[in-house]
Amino acid sequence: MAASVCKQKCYYCECINGKPCAESWVESCSVFINSTVDITCQLHESYGEANSSHLYFVREDNKLENDNLIVIDQSTTVLQHVVTTDDIRKNFWCKTRTNTSLILGKVELLYIDYYPQEIVNFACIWEGMAAGALQCFWEHPVEYRHPNFINVSLEWKTSSNKPYKNICPKIFENTKCENMTGNVHGPSSFFRINVTNKRMEVTTTTEIQGDFIGDLYGKPYKMENFTVRERYKTAIELTWDKNDRDLEFTIQYTTNRTNTVKTFNTSVLIEDLQTYTFYTFEMVAHYTDIFTHTRPIGLSSDSVYLKARTAQDVAKFAPKVTMGAIEFAEDDRSKVRNITVYWQNFKEMEENGPIVKFEVNLESTGDKLISHQFNSTNASHHTFTNIQSGQSGSIRIKAGTNVGMSAASSPIYINKGDYKPPHFVLEKLNRDILMSWETENTEGVKGYTIYWCERTNGCEKQLKWAHVSADAKSYTVQNLDFEKIYLFGLSMDSDNKSTGFSWENCYFIRNEIPQRPTSVTVQDRNKQSISVVWARPRPCERSPFVEFYILYWCQADEKGTECLLGTNSSTRINSSIIKVDMQYTIRNLKSGTRYVVWLMAVSSAGKQSLEGEKNYNVTTMDSLQSEPKMKSIETDKLYALFIDMHTENYF
């Protein structure tokens, strides 16, 4: 064993009377990555169960290549191993193939790092024409594991005939040298950078030779007061202060591609831009060569940035409209109505500038134009009050920037007050609302428009709408948030004509079971028929919509408490979206007979209620009783009143 080697005590290698069976060592425990080390294992002379040909090495129980094993003698074997980063903080164990569970000896490489490397990406900065100092930068091609043992020095000179005398006063983070003073304006430059591993006492030197320092490393100061001189609709004029001589300026900005403008002046007009659009401008400066002042040399200055917007123009688009987006509130007594028109705003409206006002124009047939202009950034409806119900016409909307108004929207037509919107019902199903409707007169109808928005009375947020064909009878508004309150409306639309709509916010609950109907009420009777009435649930009662009822009746027994066997009858009676009050006449009954009448409700989802309360007090008239003449009596009264009124007027 050599006199100066590195070995460590192994506390778990006892195999003979508490002593190791072998010793392991290396020449040095401080090594470089990619270097080759000799790891030696020597058996103790008293261990006779193996010889050196049985020895091999592992690293922390992981497989280790043993291709380069050298048997020295009967007791000694050497492994020639190339050091890698995998060896860091790992033990090398010596073992024998005669007893693989036994560790004979161990050694650890305590210090592993890279050999000092030549530096890369060397560059310097000579900032400002009047600069008297250099700043130089470089990088290391590897990341040293123990930077505290790495020392870097930089020397430089301006002539090959002179020795290196100028030494960087301080190195920062082993990658930067500042305040290098001397003749930085010389025609040549020579640099020497030394990287030293202090622990291992080895040094690697990188020598760099360059030409005129200004050509290589001249860097202007960044420009100041970079600002906008003038804004136009499609152009921006930029200006800045020049702080040095012989400079060329480069401005870059992005449209649908990156654009570059170069100039020797301290202002430039950037053209072919979009109206009212933000652009980010980046500017750098270069020195130019001292002979022609046209070729950029050295390094570019630090960038300066400016975010600027082109000027506004008149509003580009009018709001979106649809012909039926009108709500009517009519007073039948005074024959006037309030008309609320709705529209949709969209992002592209502000391409030429922010919307700050709206103009709504109502043009009635045979009347003067009514124009209302008001300031707002997001208005989506407007109301005209006290408009004659018999008038028709149209409404158009404009949006405006600070520069001017857009063109008018397409017209929204107003019709006379006798053209009414269709009746509809709303049913809640999970997060959706199903709207169904009935129409009595569909002649000339081209389609329907469904409207919805958030709020209890009028739209707080922008109105939404959807169009369906003339043969549609329902529409589903999906994915609503029922923590909020919604309004719904429906218009029937023709060519240049629409009913407008009225708001509704009550809805039925589709998947619930209908409540048990209450008892029917007898409205009229005669000897062979009985007319009964009842009311279906209303939407605000939070019940399902009853699509139809099954009306049951039977002849009562002698006690009047049960049905007489074999007398049960029933019929289906469809509900109406339009009418809440229900009525039916049971015919072909026996005179002077008591009947039992009751209901069952069936929802639009097909769910049945329990049988309703039974009315046991339904009796037809006796054959000896005279038929009621309520209708003829009422007719006689009205006729007499009519004669009296006209006779009085005549005389």
TrEMBL record:
Q: InterPro entries recorded for this chain?
A: ECM_Regulatory_Proteins, FN3_dom, FN3_sf, Ig-like_fold
Q: Does the keyword S-adenosyl-L-methionine apply?
A: no
Coiled-coil region(s): none
- Top-rank taxon, per record: Eukaryota
Record domain Fibronectin type-III: where: 222-313, 516-623
Matching entries from Pfam families are given as:
fn3
UniProt keyword annotations, A-Z: Repeat
> What is the protein name stated in its UniProt record?
Fibronectin type-III domain-containing protein
